[in-house]
Write a structure and sequence with these properties.
This is Temperature sensing protein-related. This protein is mostly helical. The protein has helices spanning 3-7, 11-18, 32-39, 64-67, 90-102, 133-142. The chain has a domain at 23-54 and 84-143. Helices cover 34% and strands 0% of the residues. The radius of gyration is 18 Å and the shape is globular.
């Protein structure tokens, strides 16, 4: 099979032709910086800063007393190392937010070839239904 034949199977190629018999879909070209963020496994697992202040895990329990155990104390040997700032993708977040709204308030995230089915366990609902950009990123980054 030739590369051009494989490329014709990507959703952005076939969806316009089968739109009338398929589920409503919004397609976004992802910025290279976002693709690199998804692929990067070298640093800590950081979700992007949300311009909407959305939390991908809103049902989690926040107990400040327990968090003290996970804070590095001063003089811990890594003093010269600054913490990695979370990434931010405001333009992409706004476009995806608009798409979610146009789809009725929820979306099923999918890349060209796959959906993040293996990461449903990490979502707050245990499924792939996403209502925010942060939830989508959590699933994609975890997959």
């Amino acid at each position: 099979m030739k590369e051009e034949e494989i490329n014709r199977c990507q959703i952005q190629e076939w969806y316009p032709k089968f739109k009338s018999v398929s589920i409503k879909t919004r397609i976004h070209e992802l910025p290279e910086s976002f693709v690199q963020y998804l692929l990067d496994d070298s640093g800590p697992f950081l979700l992007p800063l949300s311009i909407s202040n959305d939390d991908a895990l809103p049902k989690r329990v926040n107990n400040p007393e327990e968090e003290e155990d996970f804070v590095a104390s001063e003089g811990s040997g890594d003093e010269a190392e600054e913490p990695t700032p979370p990434p931010s993708f405001p333009e992409l977040e706004m476009r995806i937010k608009e798409s979610i709204e146009s789809l009725g308030g929820a979306a099923f995230p999918k890349l060209n070839w796959s959906a993040p089915k293996d990461s449903a366990w990490i979502s707050s609902t245990g499924n792939l239904k996403c209502t925010t950009f942060s939830e989508i990123v959590l699933l994609l980054k975890s997959s």
